[in-house]
């Protein structure tokens, strides 16, 4: 979202101060800044004399964790996170950020409060029905883990970093010597000469002992997988059905022959009457 805000604000400068936004953001968040800076003064790194505190690193790590949660959604598993890698990546990002901000300060870059207010007003993430909404703004800022004042300070830094990057990207140049060197590399050619030497088998004489010795040393290279050659004949009844014609009397004779060999069978039925001996 911060990248989106920075991209949408490039080349745009506000000329008026939005008083209502300044008032909204001046009343809250100040305590959080002083509390955060006072709770943990242990420095984890220094960049040209400027400290990166443990609190800043913890916030950066937490921010990266939240970004992963948003990106992965239901697939996010906190147990799979490598806290050391997460911490190292966050620290590297803070160092790069410090260097960019120092470069912006050395180059006298600035971003006014009025321009910052206008950026916030024009940010779609802070709008409801196309208009800025303070409650929506507070909700998004809290989700990012910032107070209002912290967010404004962070957003100002993002704008300055964007100016530095845009300035570097827009001022790229090459010297005449570099152009000439590139042209020479791009257009250079190479000449090659080759000689084909044909082998003469007749010029080499090997004894049987030398051949056998070489074979014994490289016997595995001359081995082939086991192979079997099989001849077989396959007979299927279905293949002969259309080649045989059977008459009805032949079928009847075969049937009678088979039934004649069967044992005699009889079918009996009886009725049982119950008799009372006492009557």
Write the layout of secondary structure elements.
Layout: H1 2-9, H2 19-26, H3 30-39, E1 43-47, E2 50-53, H4 54-72, H5 83-106, H6 113-122, E3 127-128, E4 131-132, H7 134-143, H8 148-170, H9 176-187, H10 208-217, H11 248-260
Antiparallel strand pairs: 1-2, 3-4
Helix pairs in contact: 1-8, 4-5, 5-8
Can I get a quick summary?
This protein is mainly α. The protein has helices spanning about 1-10, 20-25, 30-40, 55-70, 85-105, 115-120, 135-145, 150-170, 175-185, 210-215, 250-260, and strands at about 45, 50-55, 125-130, 130.
Q: Helicity range of the residues?
A: 40-55%
Secondary-structure element series: HHHEEHHHEEHHHHH
- Largest beta-sheet characterization: 2 strands, antiparallel
Judging from the principal axes of the Cα atoms, what is the shape? Answer: flat
How many alpha or pi helices? 11
Mean pLDDT level: 78
Question: Are there runs of 5+ residues with pLDDT below 50, and where?
Answer: 8-40
Spatially, the strands of the biggest sheet line up as 1-2
Strand content: under 5%
Counting helices, strands and paired strands, the structural category is: mainly alpha
The total of beta strands comes to 4
Keywords: Cell membrane, Chaperone, Isomerase, Membrane, Transmembrane, Transmembrane helix
Protein name: Peptidyl-prolyl cis-trans isomerase D
Subcellular location: Cell membrane
Main location: membrane
